[in-house]
Specification:
The chain is of the alpha/beta class and about 250 residues long. The protein has a single domain, classed as Rossmann fold (3-Layer(aba) Sandwich), CATH 3.40.50. Helix content is about 35%, strand content about 20%. An 8-stranded mixed β-sheet has the order 3-2-1-4-5-6-7-8, covered by helices on one side. The radius of gyration is 20 Å and the shape is globular. The N and C termini lie far apart (about 55 Å).
């Protein structure tokens, strides 16, 4: 790229301006893609517009930050496609008073969106390195209402229950009864269900008087959950189909 002005300061300003213009164009295309995919929640779209996704991807993939593809991240993990992230967050119908539990922090991008739309987010990931990288991004972006720990599944957050929303970011063969029990009345749990490498479905459970309303949202493909604790919960007490009232 050629800049006519030889003044170093002016050259830097031109370079930064060009970079901001490129990022703005990418963001506009990204938002248009989200709208075409059915993302229409105005507060969510506003949060996405103001949240720089490039802060949450490895430096070598910054040019692909706004593409609807899964990207490799630290610890041998991958991000979810951003359109799927937006669909899941939109389905939660978050309100500013809500307290949210997220199982599977990943890059922290989805966590940041949840935080911008709710009162507080409690998030957990088995990989301490991912938590540390995510916390760095949240600090840089001044997002204070997130509490994160490295750990195994639900155990370390049971003292914070009940939650208005629970979102799980790895596939489970079934939903543990004890996990669903962490919801408030009227609360919503969203999780991919199915074994890794086999057909999976994103399923929502809403807690209502007398049981649960279950809804199949869409087919998905997630890595399997490797939490020994959640596996033990399933062995003891999965959420039985007869306890759910299908929507």
């Amino acid at each position: 790229m050629f800049f006519r002005n030889a003044n170093p300061f002016t050259f830097l300003m031109e370079l930064l301006g060009t970079d901001m213009h490129v990022r703005a164009n990418r963001n506009i295309r990204f938002l248009m893609e989200l709208r075409r995919a059915g993302i229409h929640d105005v507060p969510l779209l506003s949060a996405i517009e103001r949240l720089p996704r490039e802060h949450f991807v490895p430096a070598s993939f910054i040019d692909q930050a706004y593409e609807n593809i899964a990207l490799p991240i630290a610890c041998g993990q991958t991000t979810s496609q951003p359109v799927l992230v937006a669909e899941m967050v939109q389905y939660l119908q978050l309100e500013k008073r809500h307290k949210v539990l997220e199982i599977g922090t990943g890059t922290g991008y989805q966590t940041a969106l949840l935080a911008k739309l709710s009162r507080r987010v409690y998030t957990i990931d088995k990989y301490r390195e991912l938590i540390q990288l995510a916390e760095l991004s949240w600090r840089e972006l001044s997002i204070p209402n997130i509490t994160a720990i490295a750990g195994d599944g639900l155990a370390d957050w049971q003292g914070q229950a009940p939650f208005d929303r629970i979102i799980v970011c790895a596939a489970l063969p079934e939903i543990p009864h004890v996990l669903a029990e962490q919801l408030t009345d009227g609360g919503l749990l969203l999780a991919p269900v199915g074994r890794e490498g086999q057909p999976q479905e994103l399923i929502a459970w809403r807690r209502v008087a007398g049981g649960w309303i279950e809804e199949i949202v869409r087919p998905v493909r997630f890595v399997g959950c490797v939490s020994p604790l959640l596996t033990a919960m399933l062995d003891n007490e999965p959420l039985q189909q007869e306890e759910a009232l299908r929507a």
